[in-house]
Amino acid sequence: MDSNLIPLHYALDTFYLLVCGALVMWMAAGFAMLESGLVRAKNTAEILTKNVVLYGVACVMYLLIGYHIMYSSPEGGFLPSLGFLIGDEHAVDVVAAGGEGAPAFSKRADFFFQVVFVATSMSIVSGAVAERMKLWSFLAFAVVMTGFIYPVQGYWKWGSGFLDQAGFHDFAGSGMVHLCGASAALAGVLLLGARRGKYGPDGQVNAIPGANLPLATLGALILWFGWFGFNGGSQLKVSSIEDANAVAAAFLNTNLGAAGGLLAALIAARLLFGKADLTMALNGALAGLVSITAEPVTPTAQVALLIGAVGGVLCVGGVLLLDKLKIDDPVGAIAVHGLGGLWGLLAVPLTNDAASFGAQLLGIACIFAWVFSASLVVWGVLKVVMGLRVDAEDEYAGVDIVECGMEAYPEFTRKS
Predict the structure, then answer these.
(1) Residue 4's CB: how many other CB atoms inside 10 A?
(2) Domains within the chain, CATH numbers bracketed
(3) Using alpha carbons only, how large is the chain's radius of gyration in Å?
């Protein structure tokens, strides 16, 4: 490459990464709107508080320790090294000099792009434990999750750890972000228990409708929009013809994965329930997005549509299965991100010849085993030290008043 062009490529790729990072940050609003729309009115302010604060926690903890764990630990290793902050950056001087090994983009841009992924993974946990968890117990878990649990498994693949050396493929995070978040959520939900009144005798499942489906729909569409930065940005560069074409494929396939998931979930719900279930359709779109995230570049458009469709059907089945097992997830996060992530990782070898089912299964097993077991320990300690769940009276009144001292809809809230 002409050394005179290096600064231009550096600037373009840095700017592209920052814009995509901003798109992914906007997904925080999507999660907040989706989750607050799918819970009861009396719990809305608390779930909004969780979504806003967890983003701040993720930024701080990833800066202090998480980024170092993911990207400064030994290549091919299993155990990470510990360190603080992102360090000084002299990349511009190296690029301007045209030196060999010059980075493609600013390290600070990379940090920003990576930290919004951390917050996304933690947002998955928020919805699954909604309506009955203590706010400060959740935030205490967020500190450990974003500072240590997430970065360790992120290092194994994206930081050139042992999973990367083993040939595990995860382009944008079906496993590293979504399966990770779902595994942490599952551990928390198992210790937390179901919402009171959710399950009756003889396997009865009592529906607990969300308070604001227009808000939930807006949240899902915001997530769909932000996902273009999630998957397209994971190419990391756009300044060459090859990279630009890969980004275009990622955008196209991301959109089709969501469309396939939405339509398949809607049809599945119609066949099962006899109705067009909006919440299943929304979660189906998200499951399709999760499914295509592991490899959005190599599939054809038609295959991307099918990958998303399978994710949507799995999501519907997963929601029903969890209810049958009396595992209460108010927003369907575990089914969307857990099963969608699992399927997405297994679908990679179908279109990417460099991937193998053996390596993908190894990655799935390691991510789930680490995140679930570590989270179970942390949730368990918090249960002993702080308690996880509000008491029955406070749950009936709503966690908004108990935890936040305010209500999102003070004139319309009904106790239920």
Answers:
(1) 8
(2) 6-404 (1.10.3430.10)
(3) 21
